[in-house]
Amino acid sequence: MKRKIYIMLAALSGIACMPEVCAQESGGIIPGVSVERFTMNREGKFLNVAMDIDLKDLDVSSNRAVLLTPRLVNGKDSLDLPSMGIYGRRRYYYYVRNGIGKISGEDEKVYRVSEKPDSVAYNNLTEYSEWMDGATLKFHRSDWGCCHDILAEYDGILGRHHEAFFPTLLFVQPKAETEKTRSLAGSAYIDFPVDQTVIYPDYHNNTAELGKIEGTIDSVRNDADVTITSVWLKGYASPESPYKHNTDLAIGRTAALKAHIRQLFHFADGIIATDYEPENWEGLRQYVEKSNIDHREEILGMIDSDMEPDAKEAKIKRTYPKEYRFLLQHCYPYLRRTDYRIEYNIRIFNDVEEIRRMMAEHPQKLSQNEFYLVAQDYEPGTAEFTDVFETAVRIFPNDSIANLNAANAAIRRDDYARAERYLEKAGGTPEAVYARAALAIRKEDYETARRYLETARDMGLEQAAATLNELNERRKKQ
Q1: How many Å apart are CA 463 and CA 468, to the nearest integer?
Q2: Would you list the DSSP string of 148-209?
Q3: How far apart are CA 115 and CA 93, in angstroms?
Q4: Average pLDDT of the segment spanning 439-445
Q5: CB 419: neighbour CB atoms within 10 A?
Q6: CA 92: distance to chain centroid?
Q7: Which of 1, 6, 258, 392 is the least buried, fewest Cβ under 10 Å from its Cβ?
């Protein structure tokens, strides 16, 4: 049964600039102090406050200290960010002698007035709390005199923090596999002497062609996490001899390859299965269709006809002898091939640390559910969280759930182009429709978002109804 992760996302916030602040940006926000290049942005689970503080016009007498403190305020909730203290000479030594140290605590940045810079680049990350949505950032100045008394206080307003609307995203847990069955497949062109069914490894290019199959088997056979469950072989012959003879050749040559592999790898009975195709007419048709051979359409018509195989081959040979000789030389050798498929099981991984290691070293061994399990160990929106779903969709590029989760991870990081690409393969489930709505919301295409949300709601997705209500409420307030 599918399980969903419900994640309320944190967006990069906007800053509402107050009229009085905008008017003061070229002058002093508070007496003696001005601020330039102010930003207040949400970064994951932190609120980042940054600004350049101009102190050129700030005068501090020898017996005074000035404390500058950015302060977040929203109703009864408030938080003082780390302060900056500028101390006159006598006041600085008074505090040192009396063991007071810094007025506001250890996080305070202290400057003696004689060493005061003209400008300070202020940057602070504060863990985000919900009350900060709509909070005002004030800039507070307090002047301190003797006896640790506050002589004067000033407040300026820098701006307000407003969370952009970022809907809850639904990551879908893939169904856990009870058996992780995988396969590797290919084709080998093993050459036999005319009318023979005996394999000669050194004959023509057989060493390399046999090496394809052997190398594929070795790639999984020596892996402790893998158990080979079957080796499938299908032999094809070309059409230039009588059909009965070609049938015998296809059967005999496939049997010879089976015996060769079984002797080499000592597989148990029942592991190797065989099939055969007496004449590879499909391969011949594909070759002719892609070629620019003379009388191509006529030859294709003969290949597609209902004639018996021997009569069909004889008619092509008789009617178009030049083209037949060309095919015999350039196409027929490649019709004599063996298709192979190695099927195997990979053990289930349950330990998150082991899954993390596998993701780095052998991601193809993991199931989608195992990727999902390790993703829950990361903070949503982080590079590590996103990388899990990006890796999963590379391993399962056409799977709808892999594409849906990768799309959600991209929306979480405002990577709209990547999200759109993944959503093309995410299918039409309620969760996929909802993800398209979430992307439309982030792109501020609210009419499209409403249509998707209404569709997902009508498909029975409760979160779609809740998000639609929230979207409508927010739009009313704007």
Answers
A1: 8
A2: G-EEEEEEEEEEEEEPPP-PPEEEEEPPPPSSEEEEEEEEE-----TT-----TTSTTHHHH
A3: 14
A4: 92
A5: 24
A6: 54
A7: 1
Q: Tell me which of 318, 344, 370 is where a domain ends.
A: 344
Same domain, 147 and 264: no
Residue 129 counted as domain residue: yes
Q: State which of 130, 162, 194 marks the end of a domain.
A: 162
- Tens-place pLDDT, residues 377-420: 988 878 899 999 999 999 999 999 999 999 999 998 889 999 99
Provide the domain limits for residue 86. 10-162
8 Å CB contact between 176 and 327: no
| Contact call for residues 237 and 249 (beta carbons, < 8 A) | yes
Residue 212 resides in a domain? yes
CB 95 within 8 A of CB 70: no
| Same domain, residue pair 442 and 373 | yes
Taking a C-beta distance cutoff of 8 angstroms, is the pair 369, 3 a contact?
Answer: no
The candidate with the shortest Cα–Cα distance to 70, out of 162, 172, 139, is: 139
Number of structural domains the chain divides into:
3
Which whole-number Å values give the CA distances from 132 to 18, 29, 140, 163, 470, in the listed order?
Answer: 17, 22, 18, 9, 19
Q: What CATH number does residue 59 fall under? A: 2.60.40
- Verify that 224 and 269 share a domain, yes or no: yes
**Would residue 5 count as lying in a domain?**
no
Predicted TM-score of the model (pTM): 0.65
Tokens 């390859």 belong to: 257
Q: Compute the distance between CA of residue 62 and CA of residue 88 in angstroms, rounded to an integer.
A: 4
Q: CB of 50 within 8 A of CB of 122?
A: yes
201 vs 146: CA distance, rounded Å: 99
Q: 275 is written with which tokens? A: 């099939």
Contacts for 67 with CB less than 8 Å, ≥ 6 apart = 83, 84, 85, 103, 104, 108, 141, 142, 144
Considering the domain architecture, whether residues 459 and 433 belong to the same structural domain is answered as yes
- The answer to whether 284 and 236 are in contact (CB under 8 A) is no
Short-list 222, 223, 252, CA closest to 237: 252
**Which H or E element spans position 249?**
helix 243-265
User: CATH number of the domain that 184 lies in?
Assistant: 3.30.1330.60
Report which of 367, 360, 325 is spatially closest to residue 345, judged by C-alpha positions: 367
| Closest to 406 measured CA to CA, from 391, 417, 395 | 391
Residue 335, pLDDT above cutoff 50:
yes
User: Which of helix, strand or coil describes residue 18?
Assistant: coil
DSSP 107: T
C-alpha to C-alpha distance for 156 and 142, rounded to whole angstroms: 12
- Residue 477's pLDDT band (cuts 50, 70, 90): low
